Structure formats: structure tokens, C-alpha cells
TrEMBL record, chain A:
SMART domains: Alpha_adaptinC2. It is found in: Cytoplasmic vesicle membrane; Endomembrane system; Golgi apparatus. Coiled coil: none annotated. Pfam families: Adaptin_N, Alpha_adaptinC2. It is a peripheral membrane protein. One of its GO terms (cellular component) is AP-1 adaptor complex. Keywords: Cytoplasmic vesicle, Golgi apparatus, Membrane, Protein transport, Transport. It comes from Myripristis murdjan. Its main location: membrane. Gene3D superfamilies: 2.60.40.1230, Leucine-rich Repeat Variant. This is AP-1 complex subunit gamma. The keyword Metal-binding does not apply. Residues 667-753 form the GAE domain.
From TrEMBL, chain B:
It is found in: Cytoplasmic vesicle membrane; Golgi apparatus; Membrane, Clathrin-coated pit. The keyword Membrane applies. Belongs to the adaptor complexes small subunit family. It comes from Myripristis murdjan. This is AP complex subunit sigma. Gene3D superfamilies: 3.30.450.60.
Amino acid sequence: MPAPIRLRELIRTIRTARTQAEEREMIQKECAAIRSSFREEDNTYRCRNVAKLLYMHMLGYPAHFGQLECLKLIASQKFTDKRIGYLGAMLLLDERQDVHLLMTNCIKNDLNHSTQYVQGLALCTLGCMGSSEMCRDLAGEVEKLLKTSNSYLRKKVTLCAVHVIRKVPELMEMFLPATKNLLSEKNHGVLHTSVVLLTEMCERSPDMLSHFRKLVPQLVRILKNLIMSGYSPEHDVSGISDPFLQVRILRLLRILGRSDDDSSEAMNDILAQVATNTETSKNVGNAILYETVLTIMDIKSESGLRVLAINILGRFLLNNDKNIRYVALTSLLKTVQTDHNAVQRHRSTIVDCLKDLDVSIKRRAMELSFALVNGNNIRGMMKELLYFLDSCDPEFKADCASGVFLAAEKYAPSKRWHIDTIMRVLTTAGSYVRDDSVPNLIQLITNSVEMHAYTVQRLYKALLDDISQQPLVQVSSWCIGEYGDLLVSGQCEEEEPIQVTEDEVLDVLEGLLVSNLSTPVTRGYALTAIMKLSTRFSSVNRIKKVVSIYGSSIDVELQQRAVEYNALFKKYDHMRPALLERMPIMEKTATNGPTEIVQTNGETEPSVLDTKHPPPVTQPANQVRANDLLDLLGGNDVVPVIQTTLPTKPASAGGELLDLLGDLSLTGIPPMTAYNKNGLKIEFTFERANPNPNIAVITIHASNSTEADMTDFVFQAAVPKVSRHSLELILKCLIMKHSRVNSLFNQNCATVF
Amino acid sequence: MMRFLLLFSRQGRLRLQKWFTPTPEREKKKIIRDMTTMVLARKPRSCNFLHWRDLKIVYKRYASLYFCLALEDQDNELLALEILHRYVELLDKYFGNVCELDIIFNFEKAYFILDEFLMGGEIQETSKQIVNRSIEASDMLQETMEEYMSKPAF
């Protein structure tokens, strides 16, 4: 059997492959050779074969058959074997395979090896991928090794202990005695890893935290020495002595000083010193400053120090280095809640960052800008943000639009300004506006009673220009449907009223219905708007014609609406004016806007905007009923709740049905007795239709317990204007004595129109 | 702590992968795909930080290799740039004017050096000289063995 080819030879060969297929062939051939070599239990070349396997694994090919071989290498006496064996274990094994437990004994032996480099290998492997079981078994060994004076080993053992604590937190107590003189080390590697160990313990246990608070003076001293010390060739990075250690100490100080006045006071001076003395020309100095700022903001520092920190961030914002600007914006975002006024001072710089070329910076700047908007600066900020909305990349537009709406709603100085802002967003970024904004805007417009004429006029003009942006079109059609009479009569006060005839308006709406650009939802809006105009315009015949045409539309939704409107014309004309009258003012309930911060960059899909505003004030009480009603729509739970005041109806069998709808909830409603008098008992049971959960099936059980027959039993249902009704069965029948009649009643809830 | 470190070429070929938390094989492949796509799509003058899931990704290009490090929320991004730089310096000292080919043909050495610098997602040694000395001493142990066997180990 010829010796298996060497690793470098294999790498060279594989790199000559010109296609993926050629490479795969070479790899398969070599794998076969390696497999047979493994089968022969060849000790001499095992190391070489595993090394080759690891290379092939990195190229993406399966290598699991080498796992046991790695264990054999680890158990070997040769250092070379162990080196490759442990590397293989770290790459090919993890705690998901039971095989890894076989390593435990080897590691235990190697932890006590005479050569420190072998001990180092074992510690490294344990500290990188030791499972909880392994950690439990070997914690004793680790604890023993912590006492070593060998600095090479000590730093590795310390990090191993950190790993053990992460995997098995209950074992933390075990390492407490070893922390006694942890900080009196001179060796930086040991010192650094010790600080990491202390940090891990303090983060996990409040008891440990209070126990280690006494170390603050020592930490302060070490930090001071690092800053004041002269040039140390071993640890110098661009003129700064061991920045890695400095940053780690600052982080530990942050945790120790967090909710403790005394500790915070003890570190005030050193923090101020670092903040003012650190060289900022290179990245390394700024890294330390950054950590210092984070620490200052997190502990109970005095106000002077906090202002210093924010000013440092402000200076970062003007730095040429993009990374530093990004980091500044991120930090300011974290502190904007607690130090709002201080951050406000840097508002103009932040707003300038909106024009930065870098996508990550732009996003941060946008989020921060929204957080800084308040009643005083709303006009100025909105101008900048709208300009940003015009010119930004499409990935930002949805979040920006939502942010603008939220800010406008909270701080609008006037209703006119508010409507103008909305118009601006709809016309410039109309296709990126979230679908749930449409009902929100409709509610807003409805409630601004004095602006109705102005609003509908502007929306109409926008429609004439462009019908491609669906949210804009939907809001416009709704408004025209509601306020078309104001439009035609030219009543606008805010600006020059335009001259438009009823036919022109209907032309536009009909245009929406036939246009390829309109989505089915938009078409629904348009048709309903046309229908509403039948009570506001005089050209009823034209409307009747349109409605009857769509009675045979392919689109089921459109067809259904048209058929019902037709029915309204034909059989229920007396109800039409009442049904289609002006919408009342809607009570404002919680705007379920996005509240969760999701930090994103330019590349990933932006999910929701960070709103650092305090959560919107929720209107209590009445929310429940309309909420439940809309819950039947299922799906998107960001749909804002729009409450309508239910009109009072005379009490009747149908009237009680009205109340029932208000209590309809998703989780099933117990059956209820609606009426039980004079021998007639009416019961309602509720369930959701299968398969369409948007339909609630209400079954009415009517029973007659008298001796006589009951005749002329008429069933009628009256519905609130909010929901559309699909009446499956109007019952007119005879109820025989002592019998029950069940009738099914379907309630189909559609979107608010 | 750091979660993972990846090295890949401008064509997206992986040159080194170090995972500091247990991750299933399939997940690793997906993460590598995501990282290479995201990082390679970045414009030349962009900042070196990205957000991905709940992690901060710090990347830097050195010649034809991209170094990509994933951090948790608490970690310092600017320092991470220094960590990457330090690793490159260590490789450079060891190989002498390191280039991608060195790392391709001596990937196991790259791992050994990394394992003397970082461990369990934390920095193990902050002194360049000490790391270099440890690697040299380990290599000596290996060479002694090879001399004895009078052939290269692999």
C-alpha cells in the first residue's frame, strides 16, 4: 500500500480542478483512499489523513467518518497527533454527537500532562467546545489548575473556567476561592482573562457582584497604571498600552458601578481621565473612548461626566471615520431616552448624517432623528425627514413613512399641517406606506371635520396625477366616497376650490376600477366609494349601471359587493340613505404602531422602525368590542382598532343579535339564551366556519314549549354599519308545538369601508 | 463574547472557520452563506459594521481575504477591528508577509495561531511576542518528532 499523499500535495491537486465536478471527483477518490486507510488502523499516517479530511471539510464536503479517528489521534502519545486530533475534534465534533464524551478521559489525562503545550491543547479544546457533561466531569481538574503559577497555563485555565460557568452556572461557586488574588497578577494575559472571569461571575450572580465590588479601587489603580505608564513594547498598540485590557477593565467597572453610588463615585476620576487623555487619532484610542462613554452612561455618574460623554459622542459624529460615526449614532440611540436634552444639542449634526452616503449610518441617523422629534422641533425636523423620504433608497421608505406618520400624529402643530404632511408622504412614497396605515389615515381624516373639503380636494388632485400608488388611491377613493358632495360643491376654504362635476368624479373612480394598476383591494374601495356617492350625487342612474356591471365580475369580492349594492338599490332602497350616510367621528383607540426596536442595517430587510417614544396612550374600555370584531379578520395584528359608536336599535330578537356581535371573540363563545318568554325560547350557539375562519356561524335554536303552534315566525336581523352582512336565510315559518327549529346565520366581516 | 470568526476569499471560498458556540452543521453552512453574501455585497467605502439577527458583524478586508467576526451586543465593535488586525499581524509575523496562499496551504497553522490568541470567544493573550513564542515552541515540539521519524508528519 503506497503512502497516502501528503496534505500540501492534495491541496495543490484539488486547486487544479477546473470545474466543481472535477473537484468532487478528486475529493471522492481521496476520501475512499482515506476511508480504507482508516479501516486498516494505520497509526503512522492517521494524522496525515485526518489533516486532509479537515481540508476537504472546509471545502464543504462531509467528513463525519473521521470523528472517531480524531479521538484516536488525541489518545496518541505524539504531540503532532494530538495537535491535529484536537483541531479535528473542534472542527468535526460538537456536543450534539455522543462521540464527544469519549474525549473526556483523554482531556483529563492531558490536563495533567508534563508538557505545558499538551495541557494547553486540552484546555483550549475544553474551553471552546466542552459540553455541559464534560464540564461537569472536568470542573474539578480545572479548579485544581487554577492554582498554577505557570502564566501560560493560568490564562488558558481561567478562560476554561469561564466556559464551564457559561455551560453549568451552578458550578460558579466552585471557582470563588481561586479568585482571591486574581488581580495582583503582573502578566497581562493572566490579568486580562481574570477580568473576563470576574465579569462573567458578576453578570450571572448579584451576590458575586456585591462581593466583588470591593475590587473597584484595585481595578482603578491598574487602569491608571496602564494609562500613565511609559512605552511598553510588549503591549503597545499605536502608542496606547494594552487597549484590550483597558477596554475589558472599563467593561467590568461598568458592571460594578451600575447601581451603586459608592462604586460609581470611586471611578469618576479615572473615567474623566481616560475620557480626556486618550489619543483619538487612531481607531484604537477611539475604541477605548467608546467603551468609556458606555461606562459613564451606564453607572451613576455625576452630570458633568455625563455631559462630557455625550460631547465625546458629538465629536465622534464629526469624525471622518465612518465606523466612528456609526458607533456614535448607535450609542446616542441608546442614551436618547435618559439624556434627551443633551442629545438634542447635537440634533443638527445627526440630521446631517441623513445625507451620509453610507447605508448603515443613514439608517441609524433616521432612527435617532425620529427619537429626537418633539413638539418644539417638529416643523424643522419634519422638513428634513420628508426630504430624506424623497431621496432615500427604497429599503428605508416604509420605515421612514411609518415614522413620519407616528411623529406627525403625536406632535402635529395643526390639523392642516398634519393633513399636508400625510399628503406629502402619500404622494412621494405612497407605494411604500404600510397597509395598516390606510385605516389609520382614514380615521384621522374623518376626525378632522373642518378639513374634509380641503382634504378631499387635495386627494382628488393627487389621484388625477397618479393612480399607481395603492395606499394613496385607497385613501383617496374612500374620501371621495365620503365627501364627494363637498368636492363637487366647491366648498374648500383652505385653498382655491376647484371646479369639478359629478361625472368627472365618477370617471375617475370608474377609471380605478378598470385600471390594471389597481389591486383587488383598491377596486373594492373604488366600488364602495361609487356606491356611497349615490346618496350624495344626483346621477344615481349612472351609479346603478356601474354597480350592476360588476355584479358579474370575476373577482369574487367585487362581485359580492356589487350584488349586495344592487340588492340595496332594488329591494332596500329605503334603507340606502341611512346605510350610506356620513361616517361618524371615530373614537381614537391605541394605534398599534410598531414599538419593537429591531436594529437593522442597509442590507437586511427592514422590519419595524425603532420608536423610542413612550408608548402611545391607550383609550380604555370600548376598545374590546370593536377589537373582537376585527379579530375575526384574523392575520395581521397590527391592524389598528377603529371604534364606531353603535347606533341604538329597538330591542327585538334581531336587536339582541347586535350585542352578540360585540362580544364575539376568537376563543369561542358559550351558547346563550337570547329570549325565553311565553314558551318561546331562542338560543344562540357560536362557532367559526370551517374552512373559512372569517365567517362566524351563529346557529339559532328556537323552541316552542307551549301546547299551541306558533305561526308567522319572522326572523329579521339589523346590523351595525361597520360590518357587512351576508344574510343566508331569512326565516319565515311555522314552528310546530314542542319542536325546535334551527337556522344558520352567517356573519361575514369584511374590511372597514 | 465573540460567536464566530470566518475568513473567506473575494469569490466566497471559505479559508477558515472558528465557531465559539455549538452550532449544527447545517446552520453553520447557512451562516457562512449569509455572511459571504452580505459582506461581499458591501460597497467599498462602507463602514465595517453590520447587523445580522441579534449580532453585530465586524468585517475587514485584507488583500484578497475578508475577515468576519460576529459579536454580541455588549462587545465593542471598534475593539473588534483591533482584534482582527492583531490576528493578521500574528499571521504576518509567522509566515512573513502573509498572503492568502499561505493560509490555504497551512490552514492548520492558522488555526493553531488563532488558538493561542483567542479562546472560548474571548481574548487569551494580549502580547504579540508571547503568542509568537508559544507557537514557535509548539512547532519545535512537532519538528523534533519529525526529525526523529525523518519524514514530515503530514
